[in-house]
């Protein structure tokens, strides 16, 4: 009877999932929030994979902006992160940080991942040179600090005509691309930095409203931000990289791709290629 009870208890213990050691430091997995996507859900398969690879518990961390995410990775407050280009150009110069994988996004999606500068047609600004000359009297909207297609690339083209956001009468952080477009349509701003896709959607669905606006500039296709890992006692970046680039990375890729407009449809990761990012720099 006693032996039967012992065997029963042992079988019950064996059937329970293994608990990760509570004494080991937690691996913090992070990104930045965006109102249109539940990025905590998008990160969950990545966090689960890291637990399997590292044998450590994970904690999902959501920062307010790409710039805040970059600061958290560089300071060691986030160990593994899904970035955008804006965050990555700041992160890559930080010590002990490594880009470990990039979502292999379909080429048709990548071709639409561009930034644009748009002005109100009634302002009469038709070129970048005219924009530079009149910036001091205009209100400017961008999406949020560190947004790739709604701030970063537009700041780069503004520098080419010796202008920057602080040259404008005011700068507004709209929060989303659609909100930045709405700033133009409602008169809160005369110039806005947004991704091309919302602009194309406005052209297709509301041509009369789009006719009130003027396309000043359109970027080339942009690379998506990589997954990065900060080397420390709590992270095994090489092991995490191998898992992402291997067969088990597919579930993680599919979930992450649903959290970003520019990565939609990715089902696997590919190796990070530094040359794709050489043209971009932090301010």
Q: What percentage of residues falls in helices of 4 or more residues?
A: 40-55%
- Poorly predicted segments: 1-20
The tally of domains stands at: 2
SSE-based structural type: alpha/beta
Keywords:
283 residues, alpha/beta, D-Maltodextrin-Binding Protein, domain 2, five-stranded mixed β-sheet
Outline the fold blueprint.
Layout: H1 2-15, E1 27-32, H2 39-54, E2 58-63, H3 66-75, E3 80-82, H4 85-91, E4 97-103, H5 107-112, E5 115-120, H6 128-134, E6 139-142, H7 148-160, E7 170-173, H8 177-186, E8 191-195, H9 196-205, H10 207-210, E9 213-218, E10 227-230, H11 237-245, H12 249-257, E11 269-270
Parallel strand pairs: 1-2, 1-3, 6-7, 6-8
Antiparallel strand pairs: 3-10, 4-10, 4-11, 5-8, 5-9
Task: Explain what you see.
- The chain has helices at 2-15, 39-54, 66-75, 85-91, 107-112, 128-134, 148-160, 177-186, 196-205, 207-210, 237-245, 249-257; strands at residues 27-32, 58-63, 80-82, 97-103, 115-120, 139-142, 170-173, 191-195, 213-218, 227-230, 269-270.
- Strands 2-1-3-10-4-11 form a 6-stranded mixed beta sheet. It has a 5-stranded mixed beta sheet with strand order 7-6-8-5-9.
- With 283 residues, it is of the alpha/beta class.
- 41% of the residues lie in helices and 19% in strands.
- Strand 1 (27-32), helix 2 and strand 2 (58-63) form a beta-alpha-beta unit.
- The longest helix has 16 residues, at 39-54.
- The chain contains 12 helices and 11 strands.
- Mean pLDDT is 91; it is low at 1-20.
- The N and C termini lie far apart (74 Å).
- It has 2 domains: 24-109 and 223-277, 3-Layer(aba) Sandwich (D-Maltodextrin-Binding Protein, domain 2); 114-218, D-Maltodextrin-Binding Protein, domain 2 (3-Layer(aba) Sandwich), CATH 3.40.190.10.
- Helix 2 runs antiparallel to helix 12 and helix 3 packs parallel to helix 4.
